[in-house]
Amino acid sequence: MIDRYTRPEMGSIWTEQNRYQKWLEVELAVCEAWAKLGEIPPPSLKRIRGKASFSVKRIEEIEKVVKHDVIAFLTSVAENVGEDSRFIHLGLTSYDVVDTALSLLLKEALEKILKDLKSLKNILRKQALKYKKTVMVGRTHGVHAEPITFGVKLLVWYEEVKRHLLRIANALEVISYGRISGSVGTYIHLNPKIETYALKKLGLKPARVSTQVLQRDRHAEVLFVLALLASSLEKFAIELRHLQKTEVLEVEESFTKGQKGSSSMPHKKNPVRAERISGLARVIRANLQCALENISLWHERDISHSSAERIIFPDSFILTDFILAETVDIIQNWKVNTDRMKENVNLTRGLIFSQSVLLALTKKDVTREQAYQLVQRNSLEAWNKGLDFKQLLSSDKEIKQILSEKEIDACFSLDPYLDKIDYIFDKVLSDES
User: Fold this and answer.
1) Which of 11, 91, 226, 380 would bridge 190 by S-S if both were Cys, CB 3.0 to 4.6 A apart?
2) pLDDT tens, position by position, for the chain (433 residues)?
């Protein structure tokens, strides 16, 4: 696990204590199922329930000798249960316990991500509405395009997060399965009723068919939704990193009292948290590659996936949980420089209104090719010489013969760029209560 980025709630899910606790829950559910079928006497079941426990330290001591974690676990439990331990793990193979318990862990972790993602959705909605009509320059290829609003930018993020909520809900469904069907999945030493009863008690469904393991496409899908989410969080972070550039300076990460930005340059305020999100998102995506390779196991199973999963699942969930919380906190507390947004709208001295001029000319029966040539000629001169675009148009003899001064002025109004903002917001938010 990556302790530096571990928040307590998610970190506790991936402790050895919780992992073995899930194993014990599976074993006890199976014991209860056997008792329902009359194979475990009620007094023995009662004693098993009352005494079944384990010690992580003791498991580790035993595992050093037996070199098998499930046997070490069962031995530790048996030391506490005593004679009735003969009924524990009855007819099971290791991965009846391990894979079913892993599904429980993944469910628990996904539910935590889902909860935090809803918080991000809510804060984005609030911020999008707050800046709904806050005009800023749009950028394509990193170059000033036409005006947009900061609220629309955030609304795009909001809609993206809603898609992630659907994906995670679907991944929860995909991983909410277990299997208690024996060494190669054929129930040779088990009554299928054991699986049905135990998994229902655990809140899982039986895989319709399995080998000795649940098929790893399920687990890869879980890692895939985390990688997708991490990629969107990095997208948001990269946007912030650009907007915090000195030359742009439209949005900044909060800079707390006592914080320092550079060991050598005291003036620095850097988007370090957004940069950290970008870096950790790469690790999460890299773990997906490993999960995809885990799908291809030999025959009814091999163990090549197991060692890797002990790393990629805890680390991926811990890192996703961390960068998700970072994103929420950054957006809640960032500094939005609306005055700088206004300045940057005017930075190109009117060039961002070139399409409005182009369309105004075409409405006067000028061919698009001719209109484009007229506008581009003036825009390039404005760009190369640092001149005011509207003044150049007003001085252009050919354009003056086509457009009046009033019509030229109308092309440089921001009002039309706000006309459809309500429509966009209504389209996204109208189906929400």
Assistant:
1) 91
2) 577 888 999 999 999 999 999 999 999 999 999 999 999 999 999 999 999 999 999 999 999 999 999 999 999 999 999 999 999 999 999 999 999 999 999 999 999 999 999 999 999 999 999 999 999 999 999 999 999 999 999 999 999 999 999 999 999 999 999 999 999 999 999 999 999 999 999 999 999 999 889 999 999 999 999 999 999 999 999 999 999 999 999 999 987 777 777 677 877 788 899 999 999 999 999 999 999 999 999 998 888 898 999 999 999 999 999 999 999 999 999 999 999 999 999 999 999 999 999 999 999 989 999 999 999 999 999 999 999 999 999 999 999 999 999 999 999 999 999 999 999 999 999 877 5
What is the Rg, in whole angstroms, of the alpha carbon atoms belonging to the chain? 30
Distance CA 356, CA 336 (A): 28
Which residues are CB-contacts of 240 (< 8 A; sequence separation ≥ 6)?
251, 253, 271, 274, 330, 334
| CA dist 78 → 28, 84, 432 (Å) | 13, 8, 54
Let me know if 262 is a catalytic residue: yes
Task: Please tell me the distance from the alpha carbon of residue 99 to that of residue 212, in angstroms, as a whole number.
Answer: 9
Task: Tell me which of 12, 53, 254, 262 is the catalytic residue.
Answer: 262
Q: Is the pTM of this model over 0.70?
A: yes
Ordered structural domains, the chain, with CATH? 3-251+270-342 (1.20.200.10), 351-411 (1.10.40.30)
